Amino acid sequence: MVYIDNLAKVRELSTWRVWDEPTPPDNRDAIGFGLVEGKGIGMIARRKILAGELIIAERPVYAQRKTLPQCNAENAVNGIFHLSAVKDLNPTSREAISSLKNSKSGCHPLTGILQTNFLMLDITEEPDPDPANQFVGIFPLLSRANHDCTPNTHYFFNFSSFTGEFRPTRDIPEGAEVTISYTHVLAPRSARQAHLRSCYSFICSCAVCGLDAKKAEASDERRARIHQLVEELTPGSSVQRKPSYDKIKDCLKMVEKERLDVYRAQILFYGGTLLLQQGDVTHFLQWMRRAEEEYLRIEGEASPAYKAVMTT
């Protein structure tokens, strides 16, 4: 693996004991790769994969601070910076990178591959919201998963083992594609399509993007209401009037309708906290138990969100 950052951070990271530890055992034998109509190569379930299974846990072969200063002689067009960064990787790691798709034009192929396939990393024990402290990485397997606006798999970066992890949010039938999201799934269809065209050079043809106009409008409305509720429930929100218990329940039904399983855990957690503030202890305890189960299923015991639920 190559890790690129300021010298102090690189020195600190090199002393971590995690490098002496094996990656967590996973179930990568449950997936393979094959042609997916309209998408090219995709990650395919070789058997039924149950919700919550740890399909893949792997360390990145390339990691960097998302925004790095580069001099004019080392730019995206000539690729000198990235070429020098990966030149000492072993052949297997270099091949894992070079075989990935490049959706970028106007830059060196290696730079385009990296920018197309980066996944977010958390290089701190607790997620850091500061944009200046955002990190990205390339993974041999994880970076190969295709997009869907209703993904069946959740990507989580496990700081304690320094591994990216895939867990299904719902059961995946044998032969079905394992998918994640490349964009903000609560955005309207037009905004999602525009982002995917701009950043990844494809037009999404997933089931929800293929809906007729009337059904697509209804889907956009549900997703907008989910987004609004999450904003209202998020701690620190400036919204004065918090949503009612019935409104939160209705939103959970919309999450089910849209099959956006990750938001169920978030709404249960934030909604449960709000219920406690309102003195509804019975529903608070019920929702926290459900939130605990959801976060454990989609992110595992290392999840900061799961730990937060357990200590609330």
TrEMBL record:
Residues covered by the SET domain: 29-183
InterPro entries: SET_dom (IPR001214), SET_dom_sf (IPR046341), SET_domain_protein (IPR053185), TPR-like_helical_dom_sf (IPR011990)
Transmembrane segments: none
Domain of life, per lineage: Eukaryota
Name of the protein in question: SET domain-containing protein
Species for this entry: Guyanagaster necrorhizus
